[in-house]
Design a protein that fits this description.
This protein has helices at residues 33-36, 44-66, 85-102, 111-117, 161-171, 178-186, 213-221, 235-261, 276-282, 303-314, and strands at residues 2-7, 12-19, 23-31, 75-81, 106-110, 129-134, 139-146, 149-154, 265-269, 289-291. The protein is α/β, with parallel strands linked by helices.
Amino acid sequence: MLVLGIESSCDECAVSIVEDGRFIKSNVIATQIETHRPYNGVVPEIASRMHTEMIIDVVREAYSEAGLTSKDIDGIAVTSRPGLVGSLLVGLSFAKGYAYSLGLPWVGVDHIRAHLYAAHLEREIEYPYLGLLVSGGHTIICHVESFDNINVMGTTIDDACGEAFDKVAKHYNLGFPGGVAIDKLSKSGNPKAFNFPGPSLHKGDHRYDVSYSGIKTAVINQLDQFHNKGYEKSPENIAASFQKTAINILLKRLDRAVEDTGIKRVVAGGGVAANSYLRSEIAKRESWEIMFPPLRLCTDNGAMIAGIGYHYLKRGEVSGFDLKASARVPGFRKAYP
Ligand SMILES: Nc1ncnc2c1ncn2[C@@H]1O[C@H](COP(=O)(O)OP(=O)(O)O)[C@@H](O)[C@H]1O
Ligand SMILES: [Mg+2]
């Protein structure tokens, strides 16, 4: 089965054709980074307008890159939630009209489940496993029983991990997207220059939860308080020290989740899963079986959408034309049992 996958939940206009949920025939990502860079963040109105301008060309490019035509496609999958509603609506409306005109089955899929599915595009992965979803909008530690049966164990109680990277980078003008800029700068920085604090979240049902507002405030407003004498207050040192604490906040909870569940198979996804410090630190857990998507499938892409879409379509699940785009996943925790 060949599925065309459309992703437009934020500022990437991405289309891909994937066979049988595994084999990528094409994966086109038209990014809007240069347009949003002057604002040091994604401007929703500009993002949705650019999706309308880009989407047809990106679909055409996905066909030509795969050497296929619409006659070869068996179904369509599109991100319907969560995300920027204006951006989501462009992909969703296009998918509905296109499926209707071709008489093809289509399905709206969840961006978060799709990020966790991305690593499956590279290899067969057995269930169950622990999922680590870290992006600009989400930070989730979860128990994954199947592609659509996910039990959330921990989330963020305030900012998402990627969001904290972006806000620190924006404050110090380190570059856009912030996570990429901080990752790069950190390579020539000293993580010992500042001792930024992690959250004290461990009691009761916060055992796997994270919080990033504290470290964000510490880096932005209380730099001197956490500065270690003898180290330069350089952007590289700020970046490296922030990154160390930000990633260790995640890993501390993940260590607990592995310990408590006994599950040592860990699958990561989302833009922050591209982080080189996260990858090198997690690799120190030698007894774990760790799977990351390749860098190009960590940030938003259409292949993860086409890949997970295949499993719904194969099960005969199709969406109705009344399906709405939604910014959030209602009842976060409950939404995944
Ligand atoms: N190498 C990296 N290190 C840390 N964060 C990163 C890295 N690459 C991307 N990011 C962060 O990932 C987030 C984008 O994630 P992505 O899943 O593509 O988007 P979204 O959050 O819209 O779903 C941004 O916050 C970005 O800064
Ligand atoms: Mg994403």
